[in-house]
Amino acid sequence: HVQLVESGGGSAQVGGSLRLSCVASGDSPYCLGWFRQAPGKEREGIAAIDSDGRTTYADAVKGRFTISQDNAKTTLYLEMNSLKPEDTAIYYCAARRDECGMTWKWRRVYDYWGQGTQVTVS
User: Are 36 and 44 in contact (CB under 8 A)?
Assistant: First the structure.
């Protein structure tokens, strides 16, 4: 079992930056991802990192967001730069007991979820 707790959300100006954190406790997952859900929209995968540090990004955030982990692999980060109004959403971290692979964007393959943190860009 894995427990995930996000923090670091808040408000930012267009072009600004925020860093989200997600503390993971319990079993060590193989894949960790960040998802977001804007009002009236589906939850979408935006970034993932697997157990050997390989990262992958959705086109919407590539070049602006960076996913990373601390050395102990207990905290997941999402560094968000050049923020846009369309980045406004609730952001969730998620974990799965398998490598990220080609299905990293699929919500249903993740086994554990954090409670979410609001990010507002205006």
Answer: yes
Which residues have CB under 8 Å from 60's CB, separation 6+?
44, 46, 86
C-alpha closest to that of 78 among 40, 110, 46 = 46
- Is the distance from CB of 96 to CB of 29 less than 8 angstroms? yes
Query: Residue 57: which of 71, 70, 67 has the closest Cα?
Result: 67
What is the dihedral angle through the alpha carbons of 8, 10, 13, 17, rounded to the nearest 10 degrees? 10
Distance of CA 5 to the CA centre of its chain: 12
pLDDT tens column, 32-82: 999 999 999 999 999 999 988 999 999 999 999 999 998 888 899 999 999
Residue 110 above 90 pLDDT? yes
To which residue do tokens 């590539």 refer?
62
CA distance 71 to 92: 21
pLDDT value of residue 30 = 87
